[in-house]
Amino acid sequence: MAEELCFFTKEAFVIRPTKKTPITLRMIILIFSMVFGVYICSVSLRQSRFRSHTNLIEVVVSRHCRKPVASNWEDPLIHYPVPRTYNRNECACNPVRFFAIISMQRSGSGWFETFLNSHINVSSNGEIFSVKERRSNMTAIEATLDKVYSLDWMSSAAKNECTAAVGFKWMLNQGPMEHHEEITKYFNRRGVFVIFLFRRNLLRRMVSVIANSHDRYAKLLNGTHKSHVHSADEAVILASYRPLINTTLLIADLNKTKDLIDKALEFFKSTRHIILYYEDLVSNRTKLVDVQDFLGVPHRQLVSRQVKIHTRPLSDHIKNWDAVNNAINGTEYESFLNADYHL
């Protein structure tokens, strides 16, 4: 694309003379046009070469590092990023894995991410694509991804020099579905590990979504909205709101959410991935060991300060429980009515 800017048609340099135009002025305009054209070409070429230059630096650094034992298939998944904003110093030869958590709001992704960030060598940078400009088109998406995976993304989660795995959370309504083909190619080209995290019980997720949306305006915690809490007292206050669910649209809404999850799993099935469910993480913390193995980081005891908000049976959290119960009984979602994990 950059090279195309360097070709000019004959007409581009034709200055139609008039009787009143001095030859000196015409020469000045012609020279200015040529200089400006060369400038545009040089700028475009520099931009097109920037990404390949960055990748070349990483390759050069990796050649000076002793790579860990890995199969030929795993070798492209090991990276040695060279940040532009700081020096990795003695950690320059520490290999880094790239990952992305693909999830939905109120599916436990924030809680899960706090576990990951409690690992001394893992940096998960939150919902970076919650800002619309970063997902406006594929060019903006790639630029954002490149910044994260070069370790230049600054956030409270950044471990900087000695990061062994770096990534972020990506909600399904923040761009991945619209650009799934290009993103899949990017993930496979850069060796990105994908962690799918969803909820099996979509009715519980619906309760959490409605309650969280209500609190954005109600601000039950001393006039402050909190999506996540760190104390049992705060959790009890937020759980005191019991949503009224529209039973006319209930099954259609559950179908829509299920179909969206199924599409995401289909769209990104060719990536290197692992599928997690919130309910499994709650009832079986050894799943966190599986995640550490998947990311290739040393085992650590992962912890989170977040406290679950809706801990009681759904009948205690839904205002029109009888109507909801009747609407779901006998459908494929009947199992959602029962407790699906122990707290």
TrEMBL record:
Keyword hit for Protein biosynthesis: no
UniProt entry tagged with the keyword NAD: no
Residues annotated as domain Sulfotransferase: 101-304
Enzyme class, spelled out: transferase
InterPro entries given in the database record: Nod_factor_sulfotransferase, P-loop_NTPase, Sulfotransferase_dom
Gene3D superfamilies xrefs: P-loop containing nucleotide triphosphate hydrolases
Keywords: Membrane, Transferase, Transmembrane, Transmembrane helix
TM region(s), chain numbering: 23-45
Similarity remark: Belongs to the sulfotransferase 1 family.
Full protein name: Sulfotransferase
Taxonomic source organism: Spirodela intermedia (Intermediate duckweed)
